[in-house]
Amino acid sequence: MLMLTSFTLCCFESILYVYTAELYPTEIRSLGFGWVSLVGIIGSIVSPFAKTIATSISLNSWFVPAVLGFVAWGFSWCLTETHGKPLRDTIEERLD
Questions:
Q1: DSSP E strands: which ranges in 34-96?
Q2: With contact defined as beta carbons under 8 Å apart, do 22 and 79 qualify?
Q3: 57 DSSP 8-state letter
């Protein structure tokens, strides 16, 4: 089960990188990739602490990641669909 969960998380991260490439204008695409990488690094640092805290208050160690996953899934519904739309090349077009 742990390997299946790890595989699923790797798939979601790959999809996130593809979505990031389509979401941001060309001028700031590298900033978008940097932001996604930063959030991943912070998550890697915080996850052992979250597991320790959850265990210390008698919660299942998978409870915190599950809650955060559902929150992220909920926020993903707010994202706009980019399939079939042309990528914007400047920030000015994005602000309109």
A1: none
A2: no
A3: T
Residues 30-52 have a mean pLDDT of: 84
Q: Are the C-beta atoms of residues 88 and 94 closer than 8 Å to each other?
A: yes
Question: Would you state the pLDDT for residue 42?
Answer: 92
C-alpha angle with apex 67: 51 to 24, nearest 5 degrees? 105
Long-range contacts of 47-50 (CB under 8 A, 24+ apart): none
Tokens 């890697």 identify what position? 44
Confidence category of residue 96, pLDDT binned at 50, 70, 90: very low
CB half-sphere exposure, 96, CA atoms < 13 A: 7
- C-alpha torsion sign, points 28, 32, 38, 39: positive
Query: Apex CA 20: angle with CA 75 and CA 28, to 5°?
Result: 115
pTM above 0.70, yes or no: no
19 near 81, Cβ under 8 Å? no
